[in-house]
Amino acid sequence: MPPDPAPAAARRAVSPLDHRIEAVTGHDVDTLWAHRDRGVLDEPHARLVDLHRELAQAETGVTFYRTLLHRLSSGEFPVDAALFERIDRTVDQLEEAADVRDAVSRRVIAALEPIESAARTAPVAGGETISAADQAALLAIAGGAKLHEHLLTGRMSVATAYGTRIPYADLQRLESAGLASRDTGHPVHAGQPVALTDAGRAALVAARRPKTTQVPKTAGRPGAWPPTPALRR
User: Fold this and answer.
1) What is the pTM of this model?
2) How many CB atoms lie within 10 A of CB 221?
3) CA 13, CA 167: separation in Å to the nearest integer?
4) Which of these, 53, 87, 130, 210, has the minimum number of CB atoms within 10 Å of its CB?
């Protein structure tokens, strides 16, 4: 097996699925890994990040043996029976590493597709467009948030990973609209993780999607002939 990579090198592993994960979550992989370490992701996203970490390690294994094979065939070693044996062994190890990588990749896709489907199909509660303030709150919650209760005053508010605070009343409104939820399995004084629901993620994606504008057509007078199209030259 290849040696474990250094923590600094493993923080950002490129895989063919990175762009899909970043597109559906709105965050780069580094940020998602950091949110997973802080325990602010909901269960589906936490599982996705855990599987992506396995994929990153599998990709590292493929890269290790591919680099070793390139070195063995670069002319650095004498061409003899020992070299042929090492090449054969490395090819077998590369094939095994690729099989592991492909298996983990399928598991990542299996965890990713339900999240993508929910983001495409989940309706916004009431079919209404969210306000700019709610959009900012949802965006902050998507980056990681926890509901805390002040031990002295008893006042509750949501602390986000970006350093901002969301009033408890705003969280209650987002919960009533089905856009956010909190993990009540944790005590409030210790911090209850707050996450977006599928509808909340869909609403945030829809709000951030650029809108196309159309020039309204001028209605003609009742009984008037339709306008004559301009002649082409």
Assistant:
1) 0.53
2) 6
3) 37
4) 210
